[in-house]
Amino acid sequence: MSVVRHVLNRGLRLFEKRQLAKVQSHERLRRSFERKARLFFLAPWGSRVQADHLNGVPVEWVSGPGVARDTGPVLLYFHGGGYVFGSPRTHRAMLARLSGLSGLPACLPQYRLAPEHPFPAAVEDALSAYRAVAEHPGGVILGGDSAGGGLALALLGEILRTGEHVPKGLFAFSPFTDLTYSGESIEENAQADVMLPTNRTDEMVEMYLPDGGAEDPRASPLFADFAGAPPVWLTVGDTEILRDDTLRLADRMRGQGAAVEVNLEHDLPHVWPIFQPYLPEAMATLRGLSGWLRSLSGR
Fold it and tell me: Is the pTM of this model over 0.70?
């Protein structure tokens, strides 16, 4: 493991985890994340970003250097942020890097956020965006991180349930799949997780699910039916509070016949690929994922 990882983990524990545990305003949290993304998350030189709308949902098309928007398949990627903060802007740099490595364009929907727009607004927007790109040349690969990873998986469950055109695959970084918080890692890794505090978990669910219903598979895809799912690639850190969200989901999907690849990494922070290009482990994960993506696209 790199020296950068040690420094990053210490900084996240001292500053980011404390801020997430204390900040009271979701508007302030949004502004803080947007500001940090502009300062620290840098896209490769020559990347392109284009604003657009898909079935009324604002999106950003993001392409790495030399990648054409009409290349396929397209990466339909949902940003993380607990369904409360984050945007395509905060994640465009990571997707530009992934686009350049894989040779595939990315589309990032700006789905509606809680508490202004609680469940199922995000799922509705995700499905609308997917329907708009379902016939993209070469098909669609779903992706996401944290809550966005959970949203991508919830979308896949809905696609399978309703008989929509099935995407070519799905990948997720540290996905949030169980809003009932029944995984043992929530408590086991409460101290070890360098980024996510456990004291705000109930508050986040109350904002996203003011009427309850955490066991709804559209909110907690851990409980979805994934029979007929395409290949799935997942990664999570062994010290994350969401570790079991990934491991239990993978077991469930495999039990329903899905081909699932899980990469369990040691002592890396929540959604560490976003710290590209500074963190060597972030670049290694993105390169490994790019190989998997190319295998789906026939490249």
Answer: yes
